[in-house]
Design brief:
By secondary structure, the protein is an all-alpha fold. It is built from 13 helices and no strands.
Length: 298
Amino acid sequence: MAQSTIKSIIKLVKFRLSASVAGSAIFGYIISCKWNGNGFLSSNFDWTVMWGVFLGGMLLTFGSNGLNQVIEKENDAKMNRTSDRPVATGSMSPKFALIVSWLMALLGIIILQVFTTFAATFAGILSFFIYVFLYTPLKQNTPLSVMVGAIPGALPPLIGYLAFTGKLDYPGTLLFLVQFFWQFAHFWAIAWILHDDYQKVGYWMLPTKSGRSKSSASQILIYTVILILSSMMPVYFVYKNIDMQNGIGQFALVISLGIMLLFFAYKLYQNLDVKSAKRLMFASLIYNPLIYLTYIIF
């Protein structure tokens, strides 16, 4: 029984996805140490703060995912990709899921407050409430729900950044924008793949209500270009204001990654098929961590 409950909780909180979200917060912390200090493994780097960012962010994400499943339990049961979720199947009661989710979210807030900064904690709380109480109900009403959902999706790296600085500044905003615009290529590619499944419950996840159309693909292409431009902005800032060395190498890597992603976005625009959407999705998964590693290493 205990083992079954643990497995259900792992499914409820979407453990692997939550860990990857918390990992992006660590990227934000390391980048903040580098941009605002003397390197990410210098005296500015604090392992306690880093683990506070990771654990606090992950627990908040656990809570968000759990509450999302309680709210969407009926729709989850109708879609192939979500029909095995514990609340949807009835293997976990909504009441128990609510208790577990709120406890995890509250514990995450406490950890962020104790080990990081007020600004990081506030950003974490903001992410939680936007995801659960704005993005989740909007999914059945408007394609703009992805725009709203991109805000909490972009906050984890900023939470890590704020854990070091304690305040929002220009480079922190640039980091937020990179993560914000990355999500459109990534999640619209997923929405393209799962469009038929989403339509079973009336979720409008593609950029237009025309579905898998030239219009939707063109918006994906446009936002991919905006992402590439956004990804170049930190390069310009860092090497104009902090360190002029290795700027050419970093710029070349950012451009190369951008061309790679733009190629797959264009192929989707050209072909309008699920196969191209899958390739774009995987390309976006490669693009995101490599961009952050580029900011860190150079």
